[in-house]
Amino acid sequence: MLARLGDVLYWLGCGIAVVLLACGVQFVPWADLPQRGADWWIPYAVIGVPAVAAWLIGRACRYVLGGK
């Protein structure tokens, strides 16, 4: 039963990561990146770091609860 919960939490984390990355794809082209100069990485970090964190948390839940 805990293995199923781990799988559900993993897929939830993957879903959240995909939604965040989709929002990033919509946001970054409108950010006028060529005019920012050295700060080009900030929009990517603001969207990418939480997306990776959501995926990793889901992966950790799957590993701890399901042993996968």
Q: Summed up, what is this model?
A:
By secondary structure, this protein is mainly alpha-helical. The chain is 81% helix and 0% strand.
Whole-number count of domains: 1
- The count of helical stretches stands at 3
Oligomer: single chain
Distance between the termini: 14 Å
Structural class: mainly alpha
How large is the share of residues in beta strands?
A: under 5%
Which whole number gives the mean pLDDT?
85
Q: Which of globular, elongated, flat, extended, rod-shaped describes the shape?
A: elongated
- What gyration radius follows from the Cα positions, in whole Å? 16 Å
Share of helical residues: over 70%
The total of beta strands comes to: 0
Largest sheet: none
Order of helices and strands: HHH
Low-confidence stretches: none
Q: What does the model show?
A:
The radius of gyration is 16 Å and the shape is elongated. The mean pLDDT is 85. Helix content is 81%, strand content 0%. The chain has helices at residues 2-27, 33-36, 42-66. It is mostly helical and 68 residues long. It has three helices and no strands. The chain has one domain.
Describe the SSE topology.
Elements: H1 2-27, H2 33-36, H3 42-66
Helix pairs in contact: 1-3
Key terms:
single chain, 68 residues, 3 helices, elongated, mainly alpha
